[in-house]
Fold these 2 entries.
Entry 1:
Amino acid sequence: GAGVSQSPRYKVAKRGQDVALRCDPISGHVSLFWYQQALGQGPEFLTYFQNEAQLDKSGLPSDRFFAERPEGSVSTLKIQRTQQEDSAVYLCASSLGGRGNEQFFGPGTRLTVL
Amino acid sequence: RKEVEQDPGPFNVPEGATVAFNCTYSNSASQSFFWYRQDCRKEPKLLMSVYSSGNEDGRFTAQLNRASQYISLLIRDSKLSDSATYLCVEGDSNYQLIWGAGTKLIIKP
């Protein structure tokens, strides 16, 4: 089925490298969310888009993190000058309406920073 | 600080038994609540929404207690396939979702 897809599924980066993570939401879904999930923890909110507008970026941990969704569909999460503490699974979710609606998750990108 | 608290477990339960777990939330103005299920190394998937009147879906029952600010999940006649981590989610007044760290459930044959 046409669920949320993310690429790459796995990424190994050297400390200091820049990475770009891609999310393809379900077609027609207005809202898109990025989360960071560390081992043994629940997802931590990073940022939220409604169509192409980034309405909330309060969860981005530093200015090294940047997200965009220029045409209101595909989104990219970019992490500059990666650090070891950035190692986590990055989950993308989309929903048909606002934040209160059911969110459908992609499989995640597992980022390991060496 | 916004928090959703869950017992991390693991809850080790024999197949066929009934198991229940709670989670507490901090914002009395929160409007929506959910239980998500997450299998190991997989993405979270919605199990059920939690309504004020409580709701039931097959073997699963969710309850909301606003006075004590907790939600609960009851699983009856547990199956081996119910083994997973169950994530409690609170949607606050700004509809930001706040996630618990999850309760790990292991169903044993």
Note: Residues 89 and 110 of chain A are 4 Å apart (CA to CA).
Entry 2:
Amino acid sequence: AQSVTQLDSQVPVFEEAPVELRCNYSSSVSVYLFWYVQYPNQGLQLLLKYLSGSTLVKGINGFEAEFNKSQTSFHLRKPSVHISDTAEYFCAVKAQNAGNMLTFGGGTRLMVKP
Amino acid sequence: ETGVTQTPRHLVMGMTNKKSLKCEQHLGHNAMYWYKQSAKKPLELMFVYSLEERVENNSVPSRFSPECPNSSHLFLHLHTLQPEDSALYLCASSQDRAGNYGYTFGSGTRLTVV
């Protein structure tokens, strides 16, 4: 079974500052990794995913994440945030070639202040 | 428009009512999912359908009954719910049966049980 830990439930940051949202996972098998964003009163939207290859993954809206196998982490970063980035961010993990289950972390609320 | 449409967006029902949630995907995807999102809890997988066959039933109470009449439609039938069932119910679909490339989510149905 897999598990995902998002260490910060809330991250306040000023507009145009850099941000990092942390995600650590646990799994006995190789995994695929995902970041989703949820804006108020909406469903989840895929930001980026790591399936294989380069450990640095670029996604939409200027976000990127780096897969670190030795530290079992997949932290999300953006060099300069906007007010419109205020949302809930979810890290998720899925075992490769095993079942359908996507396991989500508890979410991190990013609050961008002017 | 995400390609996954959920109706209704909001639903208020009494504990003795029977209602249904509807999900429709226009993406040609092969698997569909129901997730429950409660306040302060991680997203919980409820059901998985792959090519109209239920492949996962994650210990969900029998008062929730899924139906997948074809690969584009997914329903969640509700009866004799409890107040703790109040939550955002999210439908998702994936291109491949295993969900290895991520999911596309709908905007959800906000359910309130009174």
Note: The first strand of chain A starts at residue 3 and ends at 5.
